[in-house]
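Q: Can I see a sequence and its folded structure?
A: Here is a first one.
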Amino acid sequence: MTIEFDDDVMAGLSTVMPDDMTALVEEVTEAAEATEQSPLAPSSFPFSVDTATLPLEGGTDPAFGTVMWRTLVCADRTPSSDMVMGLAEFGPGGTLLPHRHAPAEVYYGVEGSGTITIDGEAHHIAPGIAVFVPSEAEHGTVAGPEGLKFVYVFPNARFAEVDYRFSAAGAQG
């Protein structure tokens, strides 16, 4: 079995991934060819991602709030499937405005603190605290005075598959 990416695909990968991630995709492809497996088959190859090498995204669309994030695991960026994982980052008092989406979501606090309001009920988040957000639940986040970082996980292959539907301004319970 031979797996090849045309020049346009490789050029696209290099624009969305740091050089070390592009090299990782090439390495995984070579390994897949050697074992005759798909390079993006579920759980076919272990990999690691250094958060510090990933770009900070977001923070520019007022519909979202001030949240920024780093996408760690996503099928269009890593040799993975069936799961998206990222790191949300908020400055002091930062926000992710109230919204809904079909997939359930899990947050895990890693730094700072804040409040996640889910269907009108406030939940504290801080290092070591996990918060489960059910499918279609309205939820939003406000960071504490020291800011907030949490890991988020969706049961989707790609972040782009999560359809965020933001609530009316100020509607968070």
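Q: Show me another, different protein.
A: A second, unrelated one:
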Amino acid sequence: MTRQRSVVLEELRKVKSHPTADELHAIVRRRLPRISLGTVYRNLEYLLAAGSISRLESSGSMRFDGDVSSHQHVRCVFCGRIADIAPVSIPGPGDDSVDSFAFIVGARVVFDGVCRQCAVREPQNRLQGGGMADTQDIWRCQTVNCGYMYDPDRGDRRHKIPAGTKFEDLPDDWRCPVCGAGKKAFRRLSDEQ
């Protein structure tokens, strides 16, 4: 294994933040200041093909995980942060207990949650459903693995949308703060239930 590939793998295995290639590049440059982003991408592709790392497609971006053990992920519905969680009991590779399937070859499970940083910013009763806007007013991004919920009671700090702004009143060019999807990718939460 080349020194560059070894450093890319070591640094990815040290972090639990599931970085993008750009974020990992910034980390690796602390040890290898002259490494290019292209070299990081090529080494990530090689490590993926070798089964040494895994790739997560989340919130519209590719993220990488140096932990290839059996585990799932939880994604914050407010900011998109990803964390590892211990495996839960679900059918897995080799399981033949599903009707009309010979066996399962793999699974990707991503849970929705609220990270500690977002929980600190939100009153507890809102997080438990007591103070959030009516589900008629909350819209969820339908992009694969995103699930960001626009709550008019919160607004969107990232895009300077003040609290109290209804989804319908957002600018036409407004984008999901987690994955970048346009308004057409959103569905009213009440329509999902």
